[in-house]
From TrEMBL:
InterPro entries: Acyl_transf_3_dom (IPR002656), Acyltransferase_3 (IPR050879). Keywords: Membrane, Transmembrane, Transmembrane helix. This is Acyltransferase 3 domain-containing protein. GO terms for molecular function: acyltransferase activity, transferring groups other than amino-acyl groups. The lineage of its organism: Bacteria, Pseudomonadati, Pseudomonadota, Alphaproteobacteria, Hyphomonadales. Residues 23-366 form the Acyltransferase domain. PANTHER family: ACETYLTRANSFERASE. The chain crosses the membrane at residues 25-44, 64-93, 113-134, 175-193, 198-215, 221-237, 249-267, 279-298, 310-335, 347-374. It comes from the Bacteria. The keyword Flavoprotein does not apply. Residues 392-412 are annotated as: Disordered. It holds the Pfam family Acyl_transf_3.
Length: 412
């Protein structure tokens, strides 16, 4: 029985390194979200709000829509985002150094420069589109979900609340950024709590209780467990990956396919009518954690996840994710008048896929531009300030003592 090598160049637990395959996963997840949103735009045979409907075999077109929004499962991709964030933030935190206070401040500076510049820019862009492009006129063939967005003129207060991540009323996908911000604040604590098994068990108990608590805080409580699972991967994932690698190849393929299927279809099959179902989020988080683990510790050379195109897609994934919703709705409003008052199911499905694909193709160059001209320069600025904080930490740690005579031991 042969086994796959478990990433010999991933560093150790204290000094782990980043894996390009994680960036590729992030890019794929962002692309799936774009296509997923495309399949929610039009009613198919009167099928409204398809993402909230139980599986219905009475209409073959409804089954097709169910299958498509299950395969391109946006909510599952978001959970994968969160698990990936937990892993990547843990890797980043463990790579940096300095005293505890300056280490923490440097981390928060990097996160602020990572999350806020693009969020603010896209908020302003979205506000401008609300003012100058979109109208409150509904599209007759559109779903209730579609006609719920881009229908009002925002005021200054609403723009500010969106820009700081408190609200997502101007750009719906930004609800996940609010969760990212909260998780970013808590990640140092999560990383500390991964040190001992007793801390891990206690944290899981608390996070599970929070998942099912009836809190009205934008579902923040439901998703924190995804980030914590991601934080565990650089610390304990190698053991799971070794077990996976030592299994027969058929079992390895079956486990990966099972994890992917669970991520895509758990909520679609069992409780699609609940917007954020804690039980489904838990199952999908565990499946995503397994996928991230075997990806991070698996083969790193010549794998399809290490292709330059996918890695680049991962690099621009933040812009792709935040920008696509506005572009998607612009294209749909342009196309809708040409589809007629009652498009056939085949035409509606084809139109939704076409708009989703077109949105993806157009948003990629836009996200590329924002990455090179906004995100990357400001991320570099954040790293610069972070290094300054770490340098201040190093100066404070130097002992203030009088010079000793130059003896051989002192010189060495």
């Amino acid at each position: 029985m042969t086994t796959e090598p478990i990433a010999p160049n991933l560093g150790n637990q204290d000094h782990p390194v980043f894996s390009n395959s994680l960036a590729s996963l992030r890019g794929l997840a962002a692309s799936f979200v774009v296509i997923y949103h495309g399949f929610l735009l039009l009613r198919v045979n009167g099928f409204d709000f398809p993402q909230r409907q139980a599986l219905d075999f009475s209409d073959p077109y409804r089954v097709i829509v169910h299958a498509l929004i299950g395969f391109f499962n946006g909510p599952a991709a978001v959970v994968l985002f969160f698990v990936l964030s937990g892993t990547v933030l843990t890797l980043s935190f463990k790579r940096s150094s300095g005293s505890q206070l300056f280490h923490l401040l440097a981390y928060y500076v990097r996160r602020a420069f990572r999350l806020y510049p693009l969020l603010i820019a896209v908020t302003l862009f979205s506000a401008a589109m609300h003012w100058f492009w979109f109208t409150d006129k509904p599209i007759d063939i559109g779903t209730s979900w579609m006609n719920n967005y881009f229908t009002h003129v925002p005021n200054l207060k609403e723009i500010v609340l969106n820009a700081v991540g408190y609200s997502n009323s101007l750009n719906s996908p930004a609800w996940t950024i609010r969760i990212e911000i909260v998780a970013s604040v808590l990640m140092p604590l999560f990383i500390f709590l991964t040190r001992r098994p007793i801390y891990i068990c206690a944290t899981f108990a608390v996070l599970l209780a929070l998942m099912y608590a009836p809190l009205k805080i934008g579902h923040v409580n439901v998703y924190m467990i995804s980030f914590f699972l991601g934080a565990l991967i650089p610390v304990y994932g190698r053991t799971i990956a070794n077990i996976y690698a030592s299994a027969p190849i058929a079992l390895r393929y079956a486990s990966v396919i099972g994890a992917v299927f669970a991520g895509m279809f758990t909520q679609r099959i069992f409780r699609p009518w609940i917007h954020v179902d804690p039980s489904s989020v838990l199952v999908v988080s565990l499946a995503a954690a397994f996928i991230v683990t075997v990806t991070y510790y698996g083969r790193r050379q010549n794998g399809w996840l290490n292709s330059k195109s996918l890695i680049f897609l991962g690099e621009i994934s933040y812009g792709l994710y935040l920008l696509h919703f506005i572009i998607l709705f612009m294209f749909m409003r342009l196309l809708a008048p040409y589809l007629g008052a009652a498009p056939s199911p085949e035409l509606a499905i084809a139109a939704m896929f076409g708009v989703g694909l077109l949105t993806l193709l157009v948003t990629i160059p836009l996200a590329t531009a924002t990455f090179y001209f906004l995100e990357k320069p400001l991320q570099n600025m954040g790293r610069k300030y972070s290094r300054k904080l770490q340098a201040m930490s190093s100066k404070e740690q130097k002992p203030h003592t009088t010079a000793a005579p130059e003896t051989p031991s002192a010189i060495n």
